[in-house]
Amino acid sequence: MAPKNPRQLKGIYVKDRKTFFYLETGGKPCRSPLDKLRSVLMQRGILEYDMQDERLTIYNQPYNIISYADAEEKQYDVEVIYLNQHVKKLMTEQKVEESVQSPWRN
């Protein structure tokens, strides 16, 4: 399910996995979502690097920060990271509701 404003939504493209990740908050405000997403990816072992490395520059980082629209345009694999289990449940229920056709609609 694509986000409502794909140009505004930023995420992290992990170069090793060739996958774009974005944080789904379910409409709830989240301070510094990119920092939160980066730390979640590091906790899960998806993104690994030493932030204290002096040789690490913007050009040789293992990830790029790009928009959802750019990721779709470049046809990257897209994975969603949910803020918490409640948001995951809410978003999957919403997706099911959208896919079910009402018999009263034409």
Would you mind describing this structure in some detail?
This protein is α+β, with helices and mostly antiparallel strands and 106 residues long. It has one domain. It has 3 helices and 4 strands; from the N terminus they run ββαβαβα. The protein has a 4-stranded mixed sheet with strand order 3-1-2-4. The chain starts with 9 loop residues before the first strand and ends in a 7-residue tail after the last helix.
Short description:
By secondary structure, the protein is an alpha+beta fold. The chain has helices at 33-43, 68-73, 85-99; strands at 10-14, 19-24, 63-67, 77-82.
List the helices and strands and how they pair.
Blueprint: E1 10-14, E2 19-24, H1 33-43, E3 63-67, H2 68-73, E4 77-82, H3 85-99
Parallel strand pairs: 2-4
Antiparallel strand pairs: 1-2, 1-3
Shape: globular
Q: Segments where pLDDT lies below 50 for 5+ residues?
A: none
Largest sheet: 4 strands, mixed
Radius of gyration: 16 Å
Q: Helical proportion?
A: 25-40%
Termini separation (Å)? Answer: 23 Å
Rounded mean pLDDT is 83
Strand content: 15-25%
Key words describing this protein structure:
single chain, 106 residues, alpha+beta, four-stranded mixed β-sheet, 3 helices, 4 strands, 30% helix, 21% strand, globular
